Amino acid sequence: MSWLRALKETARSGLKIERRRLEPLIAIRGAAGLALVIGVGLAFFGPVVAASSAFGAFQAAIATFQRSWRPRPVLALVSGASLAVSTFLGYLTGSHVLLFIALLVLWTFVAGLAWAAGPTAGIIASSNVAIMLVTITLPTSVAEAALHGTVIAFGGVVQAALIVLFPVRRWGAQRDALADALAAEADYARRLRHDPVAEFDPVPLMTARSAAAVTPRQARRRPAELRGSRGVAERIRPVLASLADPGMGVPDEGPERDRVRELLAAAGSVLDAAARAIRHGDPVRLAAPAVATLKTPDTSELLGGPARRAADRLGVLLADVIETAEGEGTKEEQAEGAEAAGVIAPHRRRPTLLRLVPVVLRSMRAEIRPGSPILRHAVRVAVVVAVGYLFGVALPFGHGYWAPMAAVMVMRPEFSQTYARSVARFGGTVVGVFLATVIVQAAHPGVGLSAVLAVVCALLMYLLMRTGYAVAQACISAYVVFLLGMAGDDWSQTVLERVVLTLVGGLLAMVSYAVYPAWETPRLRNRLGDWLASDGRYAASVVDQYAEPAERGRDDVRAALLATRVARIAWQEAVATAQHEPVRNRGLSRAAADDTQHVLAQFGRAAMLMEAHLPEGGATPVPAAAQFADALRRATERGAKDVRERRVPRWGAVREALAQWDEEDRLRGQAADPVVRNGAGLLLETLEEFSRGPDGSTAGSAGAGSAGRT
After folding, report:
1. CB distance 120 to 75 below 8 Å
2. Are 564 and 538 in contact (CB under 8 A)?
3. Could you give the angle at the alpha carbon of 501 between the alpha carbons of 499 and 505, nearest 5°?
4. Which of 167, 178, 208, 172 lies closest to 73 in space, CA to CA?
5. From 230, 322, 499, 641, which residue has the greatest number of CB atoms within 10 Å?
6. Mean pLDDT of 661-688
7. Residue at a domain's end among 492, 515, 538
């Protein structure tokens, strides 16, 4: 993509306004906390201190809107406390330009590294730097700086207290994540009716897994319906694929296929009902036709072999989904049933806040290495903020913090987000400042009315922030104008400097990425190699289960599956990011990327089909499966290295292991389990198709589609 086209695409993306589900009660609660803090500040300390406390409450409320699975009060407290510390330290060095710039560079560099701990930590840390640049100009002494830091922290405490006293949709984020996972599987079941080898995006399941991690305190308070459905959903996905796949014995057309389609439609209906119940905390309401389809005895007469086993297993799992979604039974009964059925695993542990600190530090330290995009972002944003601050001081406007504040708020580790947010911030700033100016010129508000207008702008921002960054920025710009006007800033000066210095900050951010980029495009082959290697380990772990069923545990299969999901999502995010970068493909065209992605998805799907029929401990061993698994694991590791080094992978060792397997079966006069043998053949077929994909010499998707129907 050329630079001109990339700029056009990112500008269009930044100014885009989307229709999103609004959460008015949460927005009103955040605005009420802000109004309470401003009112207390005005009553006891005056407008300047009230402005500081307002920044703390405003930022604390924004932190609670971030996508995080931690309790919202904790996010508000952390945001308020960290901003208070930043403000106090910033004021202590503010009178010495060089010392303050050194602190600013260090603080911003750490904020940039905080993205290693996740987007929530990165956003909170970046916002702290931005708001610190404003709040340090309000105090006039060390004692006042301590007071301002205290009232900023108080703003976070107030927002946290309101969340506890007036909860809105307890466990709402976790409910939505689990419901989205079940709804995704319902959609998958319906798509399998028409396309038996349809792909499934594991992102909803991975999100639900992240949401399921809880602290010990959360584990005691978590609703019963959130405890087991995710584990059942994980088991349903391979069963659905196995039931639909023609390779499992059901022909493409005929009464057997019709019954499979009916079962898949019923499964989709049940999963949708469970998703609705979990999302809203209501009882499960099942459609009568779906229940009748699942209970009909004709299924056992029409289906046989692997398809019948899959149908029986599907009925059991759907019953488990319904029971866990309704939260039936006491905790003791649920625990006993979970242990007996092996449905619900012990809750995933999330570290407490104090124990999270060393985890975050390790993540940040791990990014301090050559080639790390997070490290490049940290260096980039630290330099830009320092340069922006010097620009602001040099320009004859005063209030030079606008430029570095704009830069740190728009800069992200990715090119497209940085450029899109730069355009959106400038556009939103112009609109917000213009509207605020019109209101000021018409109403000439005093301190009280300015405070009210600031709260109204904050309410609109909380309500509309998910519709687009430009909309949110317009509200924030007007909010800051009214708030600083309440504290005594001159209106006309604020308008001019705000627009010009915001433009300077945005341009610095955009130039910095062009000068010191962290492009994802050159790393696509590395991402693809990682996905191939993880897929190979997962497939090898599944095949190895058939070698000695009595001596194998299934923990390694689960671990390998999670690893391949992480690698696949990393690849998909990299491809999405690279599509908007003005960089050549460097050996991996978009068509080749699409082809190889499809083939690797089919490779993982073949392993998943075998996982759906893993043998029990007393099943007949398949010794040749161990040799095939070992060859597959080694070959995919070598193949991943070949992909990274732009060589064509070869699969001779896998082909030889499969031929030896067939020879052993012939000499024994006994064929292996058709599920694992056919699955092994499908794995080899997709690998060979993959070798023709990365160089773009063939349409891998067509071959993979036919392979999926073998």
Report:
1. yes
2. yes
3. 115
4. 167
5. 230
6. 83
7. 515
Q: What's the pLDDT tens digit per position in 146-176?
A: 999 999 999 999 999 999 999 988 888 889 9
Backbone φ, ψ for residue 200 (5° rounding): -130, 125
| Number of domains, the chain | 3
Full domain range(s) for residue 180: 172-211+220-341
Query: Is residue 279 one of the residues assigned to a domain?
Result: yes
Instruction: State which amino acid sits at residue 626.
Output: A
DSSP 650: -
> Could you give the 3-state DSSP secondary structure of residue 214?
strand
Cα–Cα distance measured from residue 430 to residue 362, given in angstroms and rounded to the nearest whole number: 41
Q: Which two tokens stand for residue 505?
A: 């900050």
Helix, strand or coil, per DSSP, at residue 639: helix
Amino acid at 643: V
**571 in a domain, yes or no?**
yes
Phi, psi of 390, rounded to the nearest 5 degrees: -65, -40
What 3-state DSSP class applies to 512?
helix
Q: Tokens 């019954």 — which residue?
A: 259
Q: Is the pLDDT of residue 337 over 50?
A: no
pLDDT tens-digit readout, 654-666: 999 999 988 887 8
SS3 349: strand
17 with 467: CB under 8 angstroms?
yes
Residue where the block lists tokens 């439609």: 265
Q: Do residues 112 and 253 both lie within one domain? A: no
Task: Give the span between the Cα atoms of 293 and 286, in whole angstroms.
Answer: 12
- Residues 662 and 624: their CA atoms lie apart, in Å, by 9
Q: 231 is written with which tokens?
A: 């584990």
Q: Is 55 helix (H, G, I), strand (E, B) or coil?
A: helix
- Residue 187 and residue 181: Cα distance in Å, rounded? 10
Identify whether residues 602 and 630 lie together within a single domain. Answer: yes
How many angstroms separate the first and last alpha carbons of the chain?
38
Host H or E run for residue 223: none
Residues 89 and 193 in one domain: no
**Among candidates 678, 579, 580, which has minimal Cα distance to 245?**
678
Whether residues 156 and 178 share a domain: the answer is no
Amino acid at 405: M
Note whether 532 and 633 are same-domain residues.
yes
Question: DSSP letters of 149-198?
Answer: HHHHHHHHHHHHHHHHHS-SSTTHHHHHHHHHHHHHHHHHHHHHHH-TT-
Tell whether 126 and 34 lie within a shared domain. Answer: yes
Do 491 and 605 lie in one domain? The reply is no
The answer to whether residues 53 and 162 belong to one domain is: yes
Please report, for the domain that includes residue 679, its CATH number: 1.20.58
Q: Which residues contact 99 (CB under 8 A, 6 or more apart)?
A: 93
The confidence score (pLDDT) of residue 498 equals 77
| Torsion angle (degrees, nearest 10) of CA 249, 251, 256, 258 | 140
pLDDT (tens digit, 9 = 90+) per residue, 257-279?
Answer: 888 899 999 999 999 999 999 99
Enumerate residues 6+ apart whose C-beta is below 8 A from 273: 284, 285, 286, 287, 322
What DSSP string runs through 461-511?
HHHHGGG-HHHHHHHHHHHHHHHHHHTT--HHHHHHHHHHHHHHHHHHHHH
- Give CA–CA dist 391/404, Å, rounded: 9
